[in-house]
TrEMBL record:
Residues 55-78 are annotated as: Disordered. Residues 63-78 have a biased composition (Basic and acidic residues). This is Ribbon-helix-helix protein CopG domain-containing protein. CDD domains: RHH_CopG_NikR-like (cd21631). One of its GO terms (biological process) is regulation of DNA-templated transcription. It holds the Pfam family RHH_1. Residues 4-37 form the Ribbon-helix-helix protein CopG domain.
Length: 78
């Protein structure tokens, strides 16, 4: 992926944290900042269509220990 240089203003305290994290991880400070930009971009991403998440039938009641044990046993028998 091609990168573009930008100028960003940041608090000194945040920059000190970035510097320390980069030192601990043994990577450039720029990599920490790129990761932060990516996380911010993904957190604010939007989709044109709603996500199609699977749904599950059930009572919405928590499973009991016995129900969980029975399901695990059934899977182990396969």
């Amino acid at each position: 992926m091609a990168m573009k240089r930008i100028n960003v203003y940041a608090d000194q305290e945040d920059l000190a944290l970035v510097k320390e994290a980069a030192r601990r991880r043994g990577i450039p400070q720029a990599e920490i900042i790129r990761e932060g930009i990516h996380l911010a971009a993904m957190a604010n991403r939007g989709w044109d269509e709603p996500l199609n998440w699977p749904t599950f039938a059930g009572t919405a009641e928590p499973a009991t220990k016995d129900e969980i044990r029975d399901q695990v046993a059934r899977r182990a028998d396969r």
